[in-house]
Amino acid sequence: MNRATNRGVLLVVSGAGRYNDILDTFTRHIAEIGYDGVNFGLVANELGVSKGTIVHHFGSKDRILAALHESYMTRRLAELDYILAELDDPVEQVAAALHAFLLYHEVDRAATVAFQREVVRLAGQESMAKGADLRQTYFTRFRDVIQSGIDSGQFREVDPTVDALLLFGSAQWAWTWFHPDGERPIEAICSAFVDLALGSLLINRRRLPQLSDAQGKAARTVRAAIAAVAEDAASTVA
């Protein structure tokens, strides 16, 4: 993983001071009550630090939100790069990305909910520019994989930009209805999403059961990517 893509990520991987604790606590509270409900006092009291410590690391509340966006998308991009390197077939690549979109709602839940519920917050501010660039990079790579599937004759002739936006939009709202302790496990949700999305793209649906299988190659690659990125981050901190 890139060690110094931006100041926020550098501090996260280096473990400087209370940075990680502050960001993690801020993220959890955003996931639970939203950005407007979180303040420095709430986070400082929980961690037993002064508000000045938070200001020292972040400067302002919007910068903490920016760091959340940046660190979240840095992880997701690293995982997508892993997936694209491990899988050669654009159909499998899209299937894996779709599994990932929903799996994050369980394996990285607080950050995913916080990110998705506040993704457009302060969007026009300079502090959010890095996060916006990372999101655009991720989107472009995913859209290009759809285009590769079209070019190889495996996907129908669709507008890859529109389809990519629709798929992101579908996953974006899962935080409002999916709960890890609900009656449907995340594996079932992932499989249904892949089946629905790829079913609309594939010209030949013969491979659909394998692609949507929560134990199949695409899904296994996603879990391997998540584990590899987490291990890389842990080794960098160590």
Written account of the structure:
The chain is built from 12 helices and no strands. α5 crosses α12 (217-237) and α6 crosses α12 (217-237). It has a single domain (7-237), classed as Tetracycline Repressor, domain 2. The protein is elongated, with a radius of gyration of 18 Å. The protein is mainly alpha-helical and 238 residues long.
Order of helices and strands: HHHHHHHHHHHH
Class in CATH? Mainly Alpha
Query: What is the CATH homologous superfamily assignment?
Result: Tetracycline Repressor, domain 2
Name the CATH architecture: Orthogonal Bundle
Distance between the first and last residues' Cα: 14 Å
Tally of DSSP helical segments? 12
Poorly predicted sequence stretches spanning 5 or more consecutive residues:
1-15
Integer-rounded radius of gyration: 18 Å
Might you state the CATH topology name? Tetracycline Repressor, domain 2
Largest sheet descriptor: none
Number of domains: 1
Q: What global shape is seen?
A: elongated
Structural class: mainly alpha
- Mean pLDDT, as a whole number? 90
Descriptors:
238 residues, mainly alpha, Tetracycline Repressor, domain 2, 0% strand, elongated
Summary, kept brief:
The protein has twelve helices and no strands.
Write the layout of secondary structure elements.
Layout: H1 7-14, H2 19-33, H3 40-47, H4 51-58, H5 61-86, H6 90-107, H7 109-117, H8 129-151, H9 160-172, H10 186-201, H11 208-212, H12 217-237
Helix pairs in contact: 2-3, 2-7, 5-8, 5-12, 6-7, 6-8, 6-10, 6-12, 8-9
